[in-house]
């Protein structure tokens, strides 16, 4: 800990950060926290690199600047990623060093080092964020103007010129080459020798002026290049040799290469695509059935949007962006399962109509289709089927072109990618902390605990999940301390994942720390990290999605944090801490560390004792102590400040002018009233009321199994042969009617209703 050297005289010149970034040395520190503590080794800024930009596509070719260190212009610069992938760097006229990012088959933070002695030693180090190709801003890519035309070129009524545009300032060159690259996977599916490769195919245009535009009439690719039907374009300075890897580049979007396919495609695209579709269908026949291990969909749109630990908006169909759902006609919103399935790394997708009901492919082409390859890839990446974006394109997207877009054989595709319904879906349980801290437990109890210190909010032995909270004293509008506290920081980890901390800084800015380092969301709002995904909305709602499916949402609100924890059903009877024992039984909610229990109707003083019992134990803290204030008040101080006594029953004085305003604002919300009285501000009361309402809505959407308004699905029903059906909702209470075609008579049930048992009423209709 920093405290070891924080209080002793430093001889900081003795130690060096060369090859030691991130370490605590005997006389000084090379950890990121050393700057705010004033204990850095003297050469910390020289060896521990800050870069700009800090992220780019996993395709590589991005030039980034090393901000903090100037080098001798004659140095030979080598950049090395993951200790093995070398790319050439250069030193600009101003003495600043630059590296070029490499082609990687993974996303996330990638360690890199820099050598200035032609690769003998690599004393300088930093990290580069590799991101999914579709998450890179359009400005960084070249644009296929009218992308649909490129991907349908050669089919009926699609011919003529194709145009490519790019930002010419992005490459420091007067002339450029434009190359075609293809992606393929070799070896046996789901075996050790299954490998992914991006391969240079040929150069489309040589030494053309770097003016930002190329128009051309495509000719079919020569020889066997036309067997490559999925790929990408790359623009590079002409001074480099063709196909050279890891050089300054601008890539296009990955796309279906219809425009370069051979004569057999151009002569009869439908026949060509049909044979490809049938070939794909035969191949699928021999692959393992990934459908058996993907999780079922949430039953309703409300559930899908509430289960943020396990499902995230599918950017191709987003209700908040106007529901432009090109591939899912009739849908207003789709979500994707965040985690890939365990063995086959497959993905789930769920789509919903304007009534909030799930759309199934059995009923509509707008239905959701699961994926053999998860679009976002999955750790440890590197090999199929886990390559971000591109494995998915190969198994699930190009095949959609073969069967559904370039030919009329969509039934083949839908047979292999049918929607999952929601029969085995169980919503997660929610718990929240907000305001002058009010705790709403997993089993639905609520209490107020105004301790000051650092506490266990929830821990689970199931996945070594730990979520700790820090509370600090609230203040009156005039700046003096109030007799209440609020959540000022939350920190969390599961198994050996990265550690995420969300806190208010001393100047009341919301900060997110990843392994003690402040995260900058200016370039990327979604990050693939170790054991979790991290997402920030523009207004700084932070979501942490752990690989177990547990989710944490943190919002800044009126100077305090609001935390919501979502835990899947498997955590039942595996939680402890201030948010209770999640098991549907309120009697054991207030369980101490030693397993003694206080009753549900305990007094505020007893609950204060319960809270104090869950103060975190020294040595188990996940928090970052990187300021004098935090060291003195929380690191050296008691984890529960026993001398701080809060108000248990704030007094409502009828003559107090604030009481009337409070009654108007809060109505009967007890938490809102409590917070207005303890902090003397309506603003705190208002954000408490909002957090309380949000929690109640969330719980309503995620009704647990014990409730009668549980979302029950009876599963899909087919229409009878020689007949049809009316209705596509399969949830509790829905009815489906059957009618026979002319000349046929119906036996069995004309109408079937979905019952509480999860079974359809009546008998199968036959015409």
Automatic annotation (TrEMBL):
InterPro entries: AMOP_dom, C8-3_MUC4, Epithelial_Barrier/Signaling, Ig-like_fold, Somatomedin_B-like_dom_sf, Somatomedin_B_dom, Sushi/SCR/CCP_sf, Sushi_SCR_CCP_dom. The keyword Disulfide bond applies. Disulfide bonds join 740-767. The keyword Transmembrane applies. SMART domains: AMOP, CCP, SO, VWD. Residues 13-52 form the SMB domain. This is SUSD2 protein. Residues 269-417 form the AMOP domain. One of its GO terms (cellular component) is membrane. PANTHER family: MUCIN 4-RELATED, SUSHI DOMAIN-CONTAINING PROTEIN 2. Residues 429-622 form the VWFD domain. Keywords: Disulfide bond, Membrane, Sushi, Transmembrane, Transmembrane helix. PROSITE patterns: AMOP, SMB_1, SMB_2, SUSHI, VWFD. Residues 712-767 form the Sushi domain. It is found in: Membrane. Its main location: membrane.
């Amino acid at each position: 800990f920093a405290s070891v050297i924080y209080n002793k005289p430093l001889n900081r010149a003795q130690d060096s950060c060369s090859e030691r970034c991130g370490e605590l040395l005997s006389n000084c520190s090379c950890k990121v926290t050393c700057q705010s503590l004033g204990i850095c080794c003297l050469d910390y800024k020289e060896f521990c690199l800050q870069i700009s930009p800090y992220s780019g596509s996993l395709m590589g070719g991005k030039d980034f600047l090393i901000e903090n260190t100037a080098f001798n212009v004659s140095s030979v610069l080598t950049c090395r990623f993951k200790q093995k992938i070398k790319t050439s760097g250069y030193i600009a006229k101003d003495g600043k060093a630059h590296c070029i990012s490499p082609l990687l088959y993974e996303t996330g933070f990638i360690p890199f080092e820099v050598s200035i002695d032609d690769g003998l030693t690599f004393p300088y180090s930093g990290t580069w964020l590799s991101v999914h190709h579709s998450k890179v801003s359009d400005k960084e890519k070249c644009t296929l103007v009218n992308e649909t035309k490129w991907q349908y070129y050669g089919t009926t009524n699609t011919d003529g010129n194709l145009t490519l545009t790019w930002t010419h300032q992005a490459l420091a060159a007067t002339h450029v080459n434009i190359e075609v690259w293809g992606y393929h996977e070799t070896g046996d599916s789901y075996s050790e020798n299954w490998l992914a490769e991006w391969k240079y195919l040929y150069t489309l245009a040589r030494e053309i002026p770097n003016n930002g535009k190329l128009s051309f009439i495509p000719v079919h690719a020569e020889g066997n290049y036309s067997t490559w039907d999925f790929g990408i374009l790359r623009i590079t300075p002409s001074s480099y040799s063709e196909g050279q890897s890891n050089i300054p580049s601008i890539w296009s979007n990955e796309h279906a290469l219809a425009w370069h396919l051979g004569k057999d495609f151009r002569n009869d695209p439908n026949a060509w695509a049909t044979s490809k579709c049938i070939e794909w269908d035969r191949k699928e026949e021999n692959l393992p059935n990934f459908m058996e291990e993907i999780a079922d969909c949430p039953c309703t749109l409300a559930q899908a949007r509430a289960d943020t630990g396990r499902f995230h908006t599918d950017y191709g169909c987003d209700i908040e962006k106007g529901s432009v759902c090109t591939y899912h006609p009739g849908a207003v919103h789709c979500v994707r399962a965040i985690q890939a399935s365990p063995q086959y790394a497959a993905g789930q997708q769920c789509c919903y109509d304007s009534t909030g009901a799930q759309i199934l492919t059995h009923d509509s082409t707008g239905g959701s289709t699961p994926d053999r390859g998860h679009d976002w890839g999955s750790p440890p990446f590197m090999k199929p089927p886990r390559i971000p974006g591109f494995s998915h394109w190969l198994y699930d997207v190009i095949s959609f072109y073969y069967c559904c877009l370039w030919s009329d054989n969509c039934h083949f595709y839908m047979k292999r990618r049918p929607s999952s319904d929601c029969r085995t879906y169980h919503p997660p349980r929610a718990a929240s902390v907000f305001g002058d801290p009010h705790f709403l437990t997993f089993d639905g109890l609520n209490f107020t605990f105004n301790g000051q210190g650092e506490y266990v909010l929830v821990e689970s032995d199931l996945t070594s999940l730990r979520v700790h909270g820090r509370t600090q004293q609230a203040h009156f509008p005039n700046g003096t301390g109030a007799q209440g506290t609020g959540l000022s920081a939350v920190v969390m980890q599961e198994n050996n994942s990265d550690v995420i901390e969300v806190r208010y800084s001393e100047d009341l800015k919301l900060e997110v720390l990843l392994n003690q380092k402040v995260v900058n969301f200016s370039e990327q709002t979604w990050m693939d990290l170790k054991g979790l995904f991290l997402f920030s909305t523009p207004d700084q709602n932070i979501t942490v999605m752990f690989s177990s499916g547990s989710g944490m949402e943190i919002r800044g609100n009126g100077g305090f944090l609001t935390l919501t924890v979502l835990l899947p059903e498997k955590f039942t009877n595996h939680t402890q801490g201030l948010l209770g024992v999640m098991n549907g039984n309120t009697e054991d909610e207030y369980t101490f560390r030693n397993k003694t229990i206080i009753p549900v109707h305990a007094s505020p003083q007893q609950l204060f004792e319960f809270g104090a019992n869950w103060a975190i134990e020294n040595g188990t803290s996940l928090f970052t102590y990187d300021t004098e204030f935090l060291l003195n008040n929380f690191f050296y101080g008691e984890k529960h400040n026993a001398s701080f006594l809060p108000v248990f029953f704030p007094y409502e004085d009828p003559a107090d002018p604030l009481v009337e305003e409070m009654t108007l604002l809060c109505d009967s919300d007890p938490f809102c009233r409590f917070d207005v009285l303890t902090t003397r501000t309506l603003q705190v009361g208002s954000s408490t009321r909002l957090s309380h309402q949000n929690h109640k809505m969330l719980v309503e959407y995620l009704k647990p199994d014990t409730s009668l308004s549980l979302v029950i699905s009876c599963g899909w029903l087919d229409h009878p042969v020689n007949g049809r059906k009316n209705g596509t909702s399969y949830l509790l209470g829905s009815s489906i009617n059957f009618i026979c075609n002319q000349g046929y008579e119906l036996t069995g049930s004309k109408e079937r209703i979905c019952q509480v048992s999860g079974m359809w009423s009546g008998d199968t209709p036959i015409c």
